Amino acid sequence: MSRPLAALAAASVLALAGCATPSAPPGPAAGEGPPNLWTGRFAATVTEAGDGAREERSSGRFSLRVEGPSTELELSSPLGQTIAQVRLDDGRATLLAADGKSWQAPSAEALTEQVFGWRVPLANLPDWLEGRIAEPTERDGSRVVAGLDHGWSVRIDASEAGRPRRLALDWPAGAGAGERRLSLRLVVDSALRSVARP
After folding, report:
1. How many CB atoms are located within 10 Å of the residue 119 CB?
2. 34 near 126, Cβ under 8 Å?
C-alpha cells in the first residue's frame, strides 16, 4: 500500500535529526473550564506480524483541539514542521497533508491507518487525556490508571495536577507476539482551555 504521508513524515524526521529544538511559539489565550486544547509529543511503533517481525517508528509533536462537535489533531515533525491535520466533524474524518493533498473517510482511525500506516484514535483521545477510560482495569485509589476502550489498551503512566501526563496506548488490546500491533506513546506538555477562535 502506498503511504505518501508516512514517507513525508520519515523524511522530515531524518532531515531534522541532530538539530537543536527551537523555542515554542506563544500559545493561545487561556480561558476558564476543563481543557479543550492539549499539546505534547508522540512516538508510534508499528510491529508487523509474522516471523522476523520488523518495526516502523515515527515521532513528533501533536496538538489536539476540541471545539463543539469538532475534534482537530495536528501532527508535526520534532521541530514543528506541520505534517498533517486530521479533523473529525459530525462523524466524518478529513485529513489534510502538508503538500495540500486531502483524504476523507467515515472513521478517523481507518483514515489515518490508510494514509500513515498506523491508526490514530482521534474520537477517544479527549476522554483519555482527561483520564476517562470506558472499561477500567486498574486504579490508584479513586484514579483510573489503566483500562480498555474501543479495542485499545490504555495506560496512564504518569499524572500531574490530577491529569494524565504520559499515556501508553496499544492496539489491539491483548495482541499476541505474532500479530500486527501498534504502540502509541504520548507525553502531554500542556492542557488548557483555549479561547474560541473568532
Report:
1. 21
2. no
Number of other CB atoms surrounding residue 154 within 10 Å:
29
**Identity of the amino acid at 190:** S
Domains and CATH numbers, the chain: 33-192 (2.50.20.10)
* H, E, C per residue of 17-32: CCCCCCCCCCCCCECC
Count of CB atoms situated within 10 Å of the CB of 2: 8
- What confidence tier does 32 reach under pLDDT thresholds 50, 70, 90? low
- State the Cα–Cα distance between residues 81 and 5, nearest whole angstrom: 13
| 1: CB partners within 8 A, 6+ apart | 114, 117
Pick the closest to residue 112 from 5, 19, 21 (CA basis). 5
Would you state the cell numbers that stand for residue 47, as one nine-digit string? 510491529
Q: Report the alpha-carbon distance of residue 29 to residue 195 in Å, rounded.
A: 6
Mean pLDDT of the region 170-195: 90
Q: What pLDDT, in 10s, does the model give residues 42-69?
A: 999 999 887 666 889 999 999 999 999 9
| pTM given for the model | 0.81
Query: 172 near 179, Cβ under 8 Å?
Result: yes
Place of cell 516502523: 56
Q: What is the pLDDT of residues 10-24, one digit of tens each?
A: 434 333 333 333 444
Q: Residue with C-alpha cell 514517507?
A: 7
- Report whether pLDDT(177) > 60: yes
